[in-house]
Amino acid sequence: MGKKPVKALDNISIDVEKGDFLSIIGPSGCGKTTILKIIAELIKPTKGKIIKPDDFEVGYVFQNSTLLKWRSIIDNIALPLEIKGMKKQEAYLKAEEVMNLVDLGEFKDSYPKDLSGGMRHRAAIARSLVYNPEILLMDEPFGALDEPTRLKLNVELNRIWIKTSKTVIFVTHNVSEAVFLSNKVAILSKRPANLKKIINIDLPKQRTLELLDSEKYIKQVLEMRKIFSQYAK
Amino acid sequence: MNRKIISLQVLVFLAFIFLWKSVIFIFDFPEFILPQPETIFIEWCSMLKSGLLLEHTMVTLSETIIGFVIGVFLGIIPGYFVAKSKQIDQILSPYLVALQTAPKIALAPLIVMWFGFGISSKIIIVALIVFFPILVNTIVGIRSVDKNLLDLMKILKASKLQILRLVELPASMPVLFAAFKTGITLAVIGAVVGEFIGSNKGLGYLTIYASGLMDTPQVFVAIFQLTIIGILLYLLIDFIEGKTIPWYRKGEEDVVKTSKY
Predict the structure, then answer these.
(1) Which contacts qualify for B80-83: CB closer than 8 Å, 24 or more apart?
(2) Per the domain annotation, does A156 fall within a domain?
(3) Residue A197 phi, psi dihedral angles, 5° rounding
(4) Are A126 and A140 members of one domain?
(5) Is the ipTM of this complex over 0.90?
(6) Do A68 and B167 touch (CB under 8 A)?
(7) Which residues of A touch B (CB under 8 A)?
(8) Number of structural domains, chain A?
(9) Among candidate residues A115, A133, A151, the one where a domain is terminated
(10) Which of A6, A104, B78, B92 could form a disulfide with A99 if both were Cys (CB 3.0 to 4.6 A apart)?
(11) Does any domain span residue A63?
């Protein structure tokens, strides 16, 4: 009531190939989340469309871990399978598989309140992987975490990406995080968000903490930051 | 609880008894104005022994519990639809505000007139009083569900029933239990007021009857017994809460907002 419609996105066209890790960066409030929500069909765009294969499932990781407080970790992770009507035993088996992948194996009977912030995010990632979606949409998932935890999770996400060869679209406003994780980075302007540039990241597929100190990485970050600040202002 | 706290609690109780006795001593009150605490206790024991007290207690207790359960169901179901549908909310909200403001207890004489002196009129009064806080808190509870959780359920293509069962119901449990606790206290009040107005059984009836006879110790016994019922029912709900939602610890994460009316 009484709210003026706001134009959030304008003239954005990005090709995402199977197995890509695409980061979308842009100033906060520019509509990055809106793009993910359109891809996930949570909102309908007034114009334009997403071209994608039929029977296309997405996994979504939110800014906060969005776990169900009243369910144990394994029940949280098995939730998508339960909704799809899978038998409990089978669902647990699959859930345990992804829990091992994100290194949460010992915590299956814990409750979200007993886990640290970083572990809750790993659980959220496991939940989005458990039903094997074609693509993973991640909306600033590590934005609220402290720096060391974030870096650790970045390395882990890279490992998961390589192991599962999933396509990932990752939204962040953190330039160095985008460079560290992706093979492609799309830079958006402020609202209404325009696609300004797509940059290919020229780094080895496997990213480690040592990479942070390498000249190549630092150069890429500095370059990106320059372009980013040019469009963000 | 540590020992020091318990001993101080006992001390407060003793101080209260002392104050009571001193008031009687200083103003020289006769038994029918303010009886001695031990007189009340003796009366309580003898009424308990004769079975009379238990009989009246059971009547009030069943009115309270049956009325409460009906009120809870009557509150939760429309509460869900008001919370989910903007249109229903807009249509009903002026009436809900009006009904919330109206003193429901004032309807008690009418209800006794319509439904007679028996147990049913009291059950209706209790249900009516319990209905509103449950309704309002169901709306608050369902609306307070994290928007991202609902988005997640949409992405997972969950049905409305699955969303209700897996997310909305459990998420609103803490708010609902807080409302149950308010509701059960109001339920006892409703049953007693109903009995005041017209009945021949129950602790409210006993209070009115004894006060008519100027049997003050018996009045105190009835009040004491009502207090015990209230406390026990409250503790029962607290116990069920602990069993139903063990994941929820008070004062830890989100502050639960409740509204009394």
Answers:
(1) B80/B138, B80/B142, B80/B164, B80/B168, B82/B135, B82/B139, B83/B138, B83/B139, B83/B141, B83/B142, B83/B143
(2) yes
(3) -165, 145
(4) no
(5) no
(6) yes
(7) 37, 40-42, 58, 60, 62-64, 66, 68-71, 79-80, 82-84, 111, 113, 131
(8) 2
(9) A133
(10) A104
(11) no
* Residue A159 placed within a domain: yes
Contact A113 B249 (CB under 8 A): yes
pLDDT in single tens digits along all 233 residues of chain A: 445 666 666 677 777 778 899 999 888 777 788 888 988 888 888 777 777 777 788 999 998 889 999 999 999 999 999 999 999 999 999 999 899 888 888 898 899 988 988 899 999 999 999 998 989 999 998 887 888 888 988 998 999 999 888 999 999 988 889 999 999 998 888 777 777 788 888 888 888 888 888 888 899 899 888 888 887 66
Same domain, A101 and A13: no
* B152/A64 CB distance under 8 A: no
CB spacing of B155 vs A40 below 8 angstroms: yes
A136, β-bridge pairs: A59, A168
Residue A125 has what DSSP assignment? H
Do A222 and A175 reside in the same domain of the chain? yes
Is A61 domain-assigned? no
CATH superfamily of B74-247: MetI-like (1.10.3720.10)
d(CA A72, CA B22): 57
Q: Are B161 and B183 in contact (CB under 8 A)?
A: no
Which range marks the domain in which residue A153 is found? 1-56+134-233
Asked if A101 and A192 sit in the same domain, the reply is no
Looking at the structure, do residues A118 and A48 belong to the same domain, yes or no? Answer: no
| Contact across the interface for A70 and B158, Cβ inside 8 Å | no
pLDDT digits (tens, 9 = 90+) for B195-217: 999 999 999 999 999 999 999 99
Q: Which amino acid is at B47?
A: M
Q: How many CB atoms lie within 10 A of CB A190?
A: 15
Q: Are residues A124 and A211 in the same domain?
A: no
Q: How many CA atoms lie within 13 A of B241 on its CB side?
A: 19
pLDDT in tens, B100-150: 888 888 999 999 999 999 999 999 999 999 999 999 999 999 998 999 999
Q: In one letter, which amino acid is B206?
A: L
Final residue of a structural domain among A133, A154, A175: A133
| All structural domains of chain B with their residue ranges | 74-247
Query: How close does chain A come to B45, measured CA to CA in Å?
Result: 45
CA distance A158 to A205: 8
Q: What is the pTM of this model?
A: 0.80
